[in-house]
Amino acid sequence: MKQYDIYGNVTVEQHPQFEDKIVDPNKYYGSDLNRLCAEKVRKDVVVNNIDLIINDYKTKTIRIIESKHSSEKLAVGQKLLLEELSRKGIKTYCVYGNYPYLSAKIYSFQNKKTINVNQEQLIKFLDNK
Fold it and tell me: What's the gap between Cα 6 and its chain centre?
């Protein structure tokens, strides 16, 4: 949703995730701070709970990984955030699978491709090998 001033210039562009947004008090939040943000912080920003950030000190590489169960979908806000971080040069991924991850899928926001991996390959990926 956009708001315009009297000259027709866009003054506020609401994030697409928040059109008709209702905060569900029974929803899982990663932390109480996340819940407070969802309930009280202005609605033209997105607050995300991301699952994993790996900082490989040896290679000076940061990777951000969201995890979803095999049948789960990435939320709109999470997808937009991970895409934006990828455009800024941060390696971002979504791993789809179920514990113990005998098989999984890794989606790369850099190359927009998904690869199928077994547990050993997933561990190597997480080890940045």
Answer: 36
Q: Against a cut of 0.70, is the pTM above it?
A: yes
- Read off the pLDDT of residues 57-74 as tens digits, 9 standing for 90 and up: 999 999 999 999 999 999
CATH code for the domain in which residue 119 is found: 3.40.50
The per-residue pLDDT for range 70-103, each reduced to its tens digit, is 999 998 888 989 999 999 999 999 999 999 999 9
In DSSP terms, 117 is beta-bridged to: 104
SS3 assignment for the chain: CEEECCCCCEEEECCHHHCCCCCCCCCCCCCHHHHHHHHHCCCCCCCCCCCEEEEECCCCEEEEEEEECCCCCCCHHHHHHHHHHHHCCCEEEEEEECCCCCEEEEEECCCCEEEEEEHHHHHHHHCCC
The residue written with tokens 């951000």 in the block is 64
14 shares its domain with 75: no
Range(s) of the domain holding residue 30:
1-47
Q: How many domains does the chain have?
A: 2
Do residues 118 and 102 make contact, with C-beta atoms less than 8 angstroms apart?
Answer: yes
